[in-house]
Design a protein that fits this description.
- The longest helix has 30 residues.
- It is built from 23 helices and 2 strands.
- A two-stranded antiparallel sheet has the order 1-2.
- A hairpin with a 2-residue loop joins strand 1 and strand 2.
- The chain is mostly helical.
- The protein starts with 5 loop residues before the first helix and ends with a helix.
């Protein structure tokens, strides 16, 4: 039986939920404060202080104060007992919290307790939100929607700030467009927001102008995901959109509608596939060179080098044609404080690739056509004009292709987060082989990876030697196959145990998280674990139906 706390208590509780929703894409500190706020409410909301004041209003001042303190502590203790009892009898909440308790089991056979307790502290939301939200009263539909609208508004605010940086070209890497927290976490927030807005578009009887605003907002988030080059965001949206359409088709009895939608889905899938194929083909296939038509010398009279073997093809152009190395380097050094002395300097590769991306010759004339912004970009290590001026899906694929060439040539993954992940997966699988049943324990994960990289003489630089970047592998490294099975059970248990949880919003959210965990260790950061833990509890326990 839940503690009664009336309209005022509900208001304060709603404020706490809204604060968490606002701070997920904006502030780690704000998230910590809002969680403490909710915990304080969990302890205090429901105390009948009016009755206490009335009972002791005739007593002397110090007696009144003492009595109030004593009864307040008794009330808090009663809240703890009642709410703890509610929690214990809520199987879904207990199973959710077991995901957190798994990390305590891992303490039994760990050796690095300092790291272990840091990990346990970061993952505290896995305990806090199921415990608090499952033992508080559900919200009505208006209150439930209010929390989601504040969340969407906060995500929108972050994208506006990022778009301002984009317009100003005030970034070296598109990841900097997320001004507060990791761009990957915000991308997941945008993906979830798109599907929440889609739900409101279909299920809520809004006026036409509000529905038009919702459509614009959905398209805005989709565009921002493209600009932010969130490959995982694009993949998740594609998979879930196709899945939702196919499920809708299965439920529709009209054969014409089924055929029409299936045809539309097939056309879209084939069109996207062709677009990707064509993009990669164009990237790999430069225009044919007619040797007799090529200029042999620069305007300064220096001979050109045409090397189509030692230099790669990038964005459909040969990097190694119209190349006058000494002339280009001298012209560059006259413009930049970041000098290049030979082809082995880091800046050399960035310079010739950047000139190629602007379709400029690698000589003094080409360098002279660079703007001051171009020079600054090259000095910052940006190797392609499009990385700053045209971020998006095409540019993201270009980066992957460049990284693939580097990785295929020398197994050097340092320049690409995509191919670094291959090294992380290899490391994870090898560590798992040695500790397949129970893993290495909660605190020994970092040491296990560090030892593996050292023992295998990994080409990854020390600053790039990360952990799994795959939540399922991260759990398996720490807790073994047994731990992974329990993790999966605790994650999907709410769906299978209660039909109420098989609703659109919860299913969409849990599958967004599940898919994101294939390429990200989502629960290993404060923002990621809070995003998961909060909405995993909010969408299950705050709805009346």
């Amino acid at each position: 039986m839940k503690v009664e706390y009336g309209k005022t208590g509900t208001y304060f509780y709603l404020v706490g939920l809204i604060l968490v929703a606002i701070f997920i894409p904006t502030s780690k500190f704000g998230l910590s404060v809002s969680q403490f706020y909710l915990l304080a409410l969990w302890l205090l909301v429901g105390l009948d202080m009016k009755a206490v004041n009335k009972m002791f209003q005739e007593k002397p001042f110090f007696s009144r104060i003492t009595s109030r303190i004593v009864l307040s502590f008794k009330g808090i203790w009663n809240n703890i007992k009642t709410r703890s009892n509610d929690f214990i009898h809520n199987k879904v909440a207990v199973v959710m919290v077991s995901m957190y308790l798994l990390h305590f089991v891992g303490l039994i056979y760990t050796s690095d307790f300092q790291y272990a307790f840091k990990d346990i502290r970061i993952k505290l939301p896995l305990l806090v939100f199921p415990l608090i939200i499952s033992t508080m009263k559900p919200l009505n539909r208006k209150q439930f929607d209010t929390v989601l609208w504040f969340f969407i508004s906060s995500v929108f605010f972050v994208t506006i700030l990022g778009f301002i940086k984009y317009l100003r070209r005030d970034f070296v890497d598109v990841r900097e467009l997320s001004v507060f927290v990791s761009h990957i976490r915000v991308s997941l927030c945008m993906v979830f927001s798109i599907f929440v807005l889609g739900y409101y578009l279909v299920k809520r009887n809004f006026k036409p102008f509000i529905k038009a605003f919702i459509v614009i907002l959905m398209l805005w988030f989709l565009w921002q995901i493209m600009i932010w080059e969130s490959f995982i965001g694009i993949v998740i949206i594609s998979i879930l959109t196709v899945s939702v359409l196919l499920i809708s088709i299965m439920r529709n009895r009209n054969r014409i509608v089924k055929i029409s939608v299936l045809t539309a889905v097939a056309i879209v899938v084939l069109s996207v596939s062709y677009y990707l194929y064509d993009m990669i083909y164009r990237y790999r296939t430069p225009e044919k060179i007619v040797v007799e038509q090529l200029d042999t010398h620069t305007k300064l009279g220096n001979p050109y080098v045409f090397d189509t073997v030692g230099y790669r093809i990038e964005d459909g152009r040969y990097v190694g044609i119209y190349l006058s190395i000494d002339e280009m380097i001298n012209a560059w050094n006259a413009r930049s404080d970041k000098k290049i002395n030979s082809i082995y300097d880091d800046g050399y590769g960035s310079l010739i690739r950047y000139l190629t991306s602007k379709d400029l010759r690698k000589d003094a004339e080409g360098v002279s056509q660079l703007t001051d912004d171009d020079v600054m970009n090259i000095e910052n290590g940006i190797a392609n004009y499009n990385y700053i001026e045209n971020p998006g899906l095409k540019t993201r694929i270009m980066k992957i292709m460049v990284a693939y060439d580097n990785y295929a040539d020398g197994r050097d993954a340092n320049g690409s987060s995509v191919f670094q992940r291959i090294e992380f997966i290899k490391a994870s699988l090898n560590i798992i082989k040695e500790n397949i049943l129970f893993g290495v324990g909660t605190g020994d994960i970092a040491n296990a990876f560090a030892n593996y990289y050292e023992e295998t003489n990994s080409k990854l630089l020390p600053e790039n030697r990360f952990r799994s970047h795959n939540q399922y592998l991260a759990i398996t490294v720490a807790f073994g196959i047994i731990g992974l099975l329990w993790f999966l059970f605790s994650m999907f248990y709410p769906i299978f145990v209660d039909k109420k949880n098989r609703n659109y919003l919860y299913l969409i959210f849990i599958f967004i998280m599940a898919l994101s965990m294939l390429t990200e260790d989502t629960l290993e950061t404060q923002i990621g674990v809070t995003l998961f833990a909060f909405f995993n509890s909010f969408l299950v326990f705050t709805r009346n139906t």
